[in-house]
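Need fresh eyes. Consider my entry:
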Amino acid sequence: MPVAALQLAAVGARRQDAGHLDHAAVDRLILASPDRTSCKGAGTASEAWSLVAGKGRLSSAAALAGWELVSQAAYAPQFVRGSALGVWGTVPAGTRLVTSGAVLSSLRRAAAGDDVALLLDGPQATALPTLPFAKDLEIVARSAPLPVMVVATVAGRLPEARVRELVRALQSLPERPAGAAALGGLQLVRFVALDEAGLRRAREAYRAAADTP
């Protein structure tokens, strides 16, 4: 089996990092996924991101001009504008991206009618209906499913035989109590095959947003 086919996805952590989408040092993406313990081991290596705003307030991407767009992923504007929202439309240059993982206060502002939208990950979006003001919010757009986490090799650092050995070791971790415990400590359940098509779409959209301020 060629190493190129050993691209996996890690099941579990809640760290979003768009660096794997376009980084000169990344040679091959070999591992990625999350079956998050916070999702009771549901086992998903990809998730959609949801754009949320006050009900009836946001009809198109162009309407975001002058708004705040709050997200824990806002530190990576290309990810927000390209991978997450590029299919929906072009986010105006005048939209202010605000990086924050504490979204409750911003959701309250959106529900009250302020010019603020939020880009939420899967677990955050799933929790929306539990909010007492959920009736005043709506999901305006959703991204295609995107890989949650990846593990990559760095160009030229490991011979292919060593990469194969590493992949086998990571995949077999759940089979041993010590391995399962180590995964649990990282909030992972297992490593699974990477959604290469999904990653390719995400990378293409990421790069397409490179020239957007």
User: Anything to note?
Assistant: The chain has two domains: 3-45+146-208, 49-142. The chain is about 25% helix and 25% strand. The longest strand covers residues 26-32.
